[in-house]
C-alpha cells in the first residue's frame, strides 16, 4: 500500500487506523533512525525517532499532502534532531558514540572504530551540510526531495553535499581512514 493510502486509512476511524500507522512506522523508521543517528548520535537516535513518530501520529489528521508523506516526515525528523541538538549543546562528542553489539569481535571493533570516526567527522560539518549529506546518503533521498525538505535551491543542495563529502574525505584521511 502506498503511503498516501495509509495516511487515508489512518484518517478513518476503525481497526485499520492504527494498523496503517504501524505500517508507516515499520516502513520509515529505519531511515529516520539512520538520519537521527547521523545528526544527534546513536545514543540519542531512539529518543528522536520516538519523538518524530509521536509528532507524526498527532499530525497525520492535519497533514495537507502538499508534499509527499516522506518529505513531510523527514522535515519533522530534521526538526526533532535540531531540538535534540539544542537540548544537549554542551554534551561532549565523546559521550555520543555508542558501540555496536559485537557479532565477530575483531570485525565489530573495526566497524565500531570506523563508525565513531565517521560520527565525529560528521559532527564537525556545518549543520546544513550534515543535514543534506545525511538525507542523501542515509535516507537515500534524491536532490530534489532534499531541496523540498530543507527549503534550499537544488544547486545549493548539490553544493552542500559536495562540500560535505570533500570535508569528510579530508577529515577521515587525516585520521588514517582511506575513503
From TrEMBL:
CDD domains: Sigma70_r4
Keywords from the named record: DNA-binding, Sigma factor, Transcription, Transcription regulation
InterPro entries for the chain: RNA_pol_sigma-70-like, RNA_pol_sigma-70_dom, RNA_pol_sigma70_r2, RNA_pol_sigma70_r4_t2, RNA_pol_sigma_r2, RNA_pol_sigma_r3/r4-like, WH-like_DNA-bd_sf
Entry-linked SUPFAM superfamilies: Sigma2 domain of RNA polymerase sigma factors, Sigma3 and sigma4 domains of RNA polymerase sigma factors
GO biological process: DNA-templated transcription initiation
Pfam family membership, one: Sigma70_r2
Domain of life assignment: Bacteria
Domain RNA polymerase sigma factor 70 region 4 type positions: 115-168
Record-annotated RNA polymerase sigma-70 region domain positions: 24-89
GO molecular function: DNA binding; sigma factor activity
Keyword rRNA-binding among record annotations: no
Family listed: Belongs to the sigma-70 factor family. ECF subfamily.
Protein name: RNA polymerase subunit sigma-24
Organism: Deinococcus puniceus
Amino acid at each position: 500500500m502506498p503511503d498516501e493510502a495509509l495516511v487515508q486509512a489512518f484518517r478513518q476511524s476503525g481497526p485499520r487506523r492504527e494498523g496503517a500507522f504501524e505500517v508507516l512506522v515499520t516502513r520509515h523508521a529505519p531511515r529516520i533512525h539512520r538520519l537521527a543517528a547521523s545528526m544527534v548520535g546513536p545514543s540519542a537516535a531512539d529518543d528522536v525517532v520516538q519523538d518524530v513518530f509521536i509528532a507524526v501520529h498527532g499530525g497525520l489528521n492535519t497533514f495537507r499532502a502538499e508534499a509527499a508523506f516522506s518529505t513531510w516526515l523527514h522535515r519533522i525528523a530534521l526538526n526533532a534532531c535540531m531540538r535534540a541538538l539544542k537540548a544537549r549543546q554542551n554534551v561532549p562528542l565523546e559521550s555520543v558514540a555508542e558501540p555496536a553489539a559485537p557479532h565477530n569481535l575483531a570485525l565489530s571493533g573495526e566497524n565500531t572504530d570506523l563508525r565513531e570516526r565517521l560520527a565525529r567527522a560528521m559532527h564537525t560539518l556545518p549543520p546544513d551540510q550534515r543535514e543534506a549529506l545525511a538525507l542523501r546518503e542515509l535516507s537515500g533521498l534524491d536532490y530534489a526531495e532534499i531541496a523540498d525538505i530543507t527549503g534550499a535551491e537544488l544547486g545549493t543542495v548539490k553544493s552542500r553535499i559536495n562540500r560535505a563529502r570533500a570535508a569528510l574525505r579530508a577529515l577521515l584521511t587525516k585520521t588514517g581512514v582511506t575513503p
